[in-house]
Request: fold
Amino acid sequence: MPRKRVCPAPGTRKYGKKSRYTEETLEKALEEVKCCKISQRKAAEHYNIPLSTLKYKLKDQHTGQIGKPTVLSKVEEESIVAHIIALSDLGIPIGMQDVRVIVKKYLDDNKKKVKQFKNNFPGWEWGKLFLERHKCIRQKVAHNISRKRAQINKEMIEKFFDNLSLELENVPPENIFNFDETGFHDDPKKQKLLFRRLCRNPEIIRNSTKSCFTVMFCGNAAGEFVPLYVIYKAQQKWSDWILDAPRGTRMAVTPTGWIDANTFDDWCESTLLPVLKKKEGKKVVLGDNLSSHITPKSLRLCAENNIKFICLVPNSTHLLQPLDVSYFSALKSDWRSILRDWRNTKRGKIVNVLPKPIFAKLLSKTVEKGQQTAGQNVIAGFKACGIYPLDRSMVLERLKEYSKPEVCDEVRESIGESFKNYIAEIRDKDLQMQQTRKFQIPVVAGKSVSVEEVEKYYEEREKKKSEKGQKKQKEKIQNKSTAPVKKRGRPLGSKSKGKTVQTSQHKPSSPVASPSELQSLQTLDTSATTSSAISPKVCNEQSLTSAPAETSLNHRLLLDASKSPTPGTEYSSMPSHPSPVGDSLLLVSNPPSPIDKDIEIEETNQSPAPRTDSSMPSHPSPVDDNSEIELETLNDDLVGEYEVRESVLCKTDKAKPAPLMKLGYCVFTYESILFPGRILTEDGHTVTISVMQKTVDGWKWPSKPERVTCSIDSVITRLEDTKISKLGNFYTIDNDFLSMEWGD
Reply:
């Protein structure tokens, strides 16, 4: 199908100026010529129609359609147009892409093959020409409307005005007030500016944020306004925040920046009542049914001053709120203009967030800019909402077609069978009224709110909440008493590292120290020990699992005083200084027999004196591959036996001089902190180590190598290559010492 240019290219000549006339213009020209009101030549010049065309039409020649015949007949296209209009009236409009899909399905179902369409799918050129042939439809930007607002129907509006007519009887326009809060955003919105023709991403450098300031407005049907009430998001008030605000403005602060019940009570008492007290006779205040607007204190103040508080229909502020209908739109337009001008100033270009004192100043300019038309806009809003003068037809005329049941029935009869089921589903399900569960205050739209009913509602709600809370508390206590007691610590068999230990069901025999030697070795660290005595059956769990990081190198000896060794047990000599094996140390052997007397271990603030046994090495020997480590955990709580043991099996061979360190990865201590690194050089007494750096994602080598020279005694253990894994630039090291020092 030949493409039609949407607009001529720049620099080309436009043809066919004389032939650009509509069917209505042609019919009007022919009618005047037939009535002898004007000649054919003058009609051609006046209506810009070729003279030959008029002559042919007068002789009934060339009356057929101009151009190539359309793919669809006239009847088919008119049927499609009727369906499009019907769907738009029901609030479910479709786009041109949907129309093209419908046409393709129609052609496929009727087994029609159109050569101009690729795969029987119309192109965008066909859609453009289709809209030109049918002027009754047009593409427009659709605005979203919530389903709750779409539920507003004629019955609800009629009921509201029936109640409102009784409340507004003999009330002058000066005593009919409407209040509503609105937000002023720190965003000037989009603006049409000039750019290069081929610019794809037009942008403007201007600061803007998502901050918002809430302002309460209130006006009456006579065009008078109540002083403004500004709400800031803050914890404290500062006087300069309303220094340049409009005269009479009051200020409040809330944690969220929105209005709440306490703030509304303050506005009603300090701003609204002083104005209404000056009015004589009955006063009426209209507002939405927001929960924070319906408080016992405000209703009591209104009742004491002959003020009727009336709520609007829920989700109907776009129809019944005078400030929303006619005032806020012009106000926000002035606000964006003033904010845009301030953002172009020197300070506006530097400051990112709009300061509160500057907002008060800009708000004052905005109100002054629209002061001449503000009163007329509010009066027009009361009239458009049908509140004053009272006229419900003003609202019913603005009610959308999809909310009228009679229109829906007419459409169902006039459209095809394939659309009936779809429209019925949309109408009966999506637009069906549902009872809201969010708020159930006894409020009837159009009627004044009673203080007694609201107070009774709040009392019943608090009573139900307390009963519900007590019921949950009883169920929680009952479930806690019947539920099995969970044992403390990690479950048996968990693959934990560091402070928790694995369970070993098979206990191999291992050499332990003699009882007399155990009593002499009081190596418990007082900073990590929380109990000075160990009972025969229960061991101190905290000393095993919650030792602080700074004591990871101070090794403790945990004695099982409730058991004595069996005969035939071999004992090994103990080192005179802390062993580099772990944080907590428990030496056990074959299952010993229990003893009757408890053994207590006294705490001491002095470190144990080093032994001078010549059989002991002069420095700690690093753990090699032949070392055996057995970590054992047994649970014994109030329900069952609970024991925590950590045993380390040391070599029974005689101590030998320390061998030379193998070059490779190791764990060493530097300034009482454990670090991993790589041994570079070693001379028998000192080693040079390249230190790794700890990050959130793991260990890594620093950008600048850090080398430390320390004694060979500082090396705790050597790391096997299988214990180190690399992911990108970060390393994960599987080592118990580092896990206890730095965490998993």
